[in-house]
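retry 2 of 3: previous attempt timed out while embedding adenosine-5'-diphosphate. Reduced batch size to 1 and resubmitted. Inputs unchanged:
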Amino acid sequence: MVEVIHAAFGARPPLDPPSTADSETPESVAAALATGTGVYATVGDRPAGAIIIEPGDDRVATLRRVSVHPDFQRHGIASTMVEECKLLAAELGCIRVELLARKEFPELITYWRHRGFTVVREVPHGVVLGRPLPRRVLVPTTDDMHALGARIADRLQAGDVIIATGDLGAGKTTLTQGIGRGLGAAGQIISPTFVLSRIHQSSTGRPDLVHVDAYRLSSAAELDDLDLLESLEGSVTVVEWGEGIAESLNPERLEIMVLRSADPTDDTRTVLLAGVGDRWTEAELDQLVHPGASESLDQEAVSRA
Ligand code: ADP
Ligand code: MG
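retry 2 succeeded.
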């Protein structure tokens, strides 16, 4: 990491005042990683990129020393690292990520803006850019996943679209079962293996649940054939495997990622909740994660943070 930080910052034009990056040592980077975390990218076995993530008390993670080795620029390494940083920072319990960009590099400020960052404040010699992170919830058991789904259902309105992402067996259908329970959805919610979409009518006056499995679909055009738009307005639509396909259903949607633990003996799932558009404000997302009625989940989250 030190090698790539020195190479990246050394290749920049001289700054006044100079960056302190060239004073980083293995010890200083190790100390930063011990209190926070970071990402390190290689191409073959050559050092190619590095970012240090520094979590703050205010649940804001700061990205430092964002470095791509000059030999590997324009390979998409920075963007891949930034996506990974967002997940890591969310897993640390942070709700925002920020970084400092020097005034001398307006093209870098543009780069971050294209990745959803906005200028938060001006500081000497530069600007601080920031963006919200997905909310993270730790879900130890199947029952807890059902409970999370039911909590999400409490806040859903007709017209809402949820896109659920995660590997096979991660828990997307299990989460949808909880959403269905909360909506009073009739019928069993199962992975729609042969049927691509199912409508579950609400028996409690809540919106109906339209449950879609887009696993077999390869394009938004194929999704169009399901005529989901017809039911969209009066229902809640949950699309499993919908990433890259179902976004066109609604510019405002809740994106949910379900991740399994790296430890195969641990059933705990990490669920990341991100709102797209004005429908899902930061306050609304906080309600999903800290509704006051889910102490067990929240305490779990805090104890692991
Ligand atoms: P997907 O729809 O993502 O392919 P499913 O929801 O069909 O996944 O399957 C998840 C499986 O994992 C279910 O059998 C569920 O009971 C089990 N499971 C075990 N622990 C959990 C947990 N913490 N959260 C969700 N599911 C869990
Ligand atoms: Mg499924």
